[in-house]
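## tool: complex_structure
## caller: assistant
## args:
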Amino acid sequence: MIETITQPWPWYVAGTIIGLIVPTLLILGNKHFGISANLRHMCAACFPSNIPFFNYDWKKESWNLFFIGGILVGGIISTQYLSSPDPVIIHPDLAKDLTQFGITDFSGLVPVQLFSFDQLFTLRGLIMMVGGGFLVGFGTRYAGGCTSGHAIMGLSDLQWPSLVATICFMIGGFLMTNLILPYILAL
Amino acid sequence: MKTKQEETDFEVRSLDTMCINESELVHPWWYNFKYAAVGVIFGIVFIKAEIISWFRIQEMFKLQSFHMYGVIGTAVVVGAISVFLIKKLKIKTIHGEDITFSSKKFNLGQIYGGLLFGLGWAITGACPGPLFAQLGSGSLAVIVVILSAILGTWVYGKFRDQLPH
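## result:
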């Protein structure tokens, strides 16, 4: 049993559990699955600065901050107690591509050669951590949601604007990974 | 004719998945721990299914792995069936309130913002949820990515009126 849990979980198990989060939040309190809104709540709580977009009662949405607090704790629990001793398996073509750019450490979920405090002082690290993070925050709010709010909650509720958003997420991702990222990684 | 304030208010309430379900019930603050519990399960799935892996996201966008498509596809199917059943059977919350849905309105932000988020998703290998799980998994430098994402959201809010929607 414990061995089954510590192995990496297959997509159908993960997908089913994530899908079930949608009705769970609805039934627990009519809450709509959507994580990027938290970034807005944090702005509203910390730096509203008279911007109308951040002047609302964020405390009414505090359930969502508890939710992402839970995600953080879940990350700690599963890394500390449920982690698999086996190395993460990477597609050989990806490994080959990354090796060209000097990325050879595939041990963690987050590549330490790209995302670390040391890397922050390199141009590549700065673009990836600060620039990438900025695009995530700016883009999700501009789009009105992220993978959870649009791709999962929105599509589950058959909202066509969410389909438009999801397709654009994918287009942006394909462009970055295949056309732009090689230039950033080469820096 | 709506005033500017009302328009902003409308968008605050409906466009961004918030306040659309304002409850009449007042619960003690610690009731929110039930959502934290759901978050813990979500965080464990993120790590155990390697959804927060930067490498898995690159494989997805290079069409080298079915994994992420399988995860998101299954989640949508399970979510859609659940939403259908909730609507069909008029299921209520555990507190006896109605479960409500609101239609999302199309605007250009879903295209421009969607593309920008897609670019960021492929760079960081994470959407907003996984960022917090990555931090929990011990990649402390991800705090920089999170702070930058909060800054990005703030800058959007600041210049929202000047952007095409």
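## assistant note: Residues 4-162 of chain B form one domain. The mean pLDDT of chain B is 88. Handing back to user.
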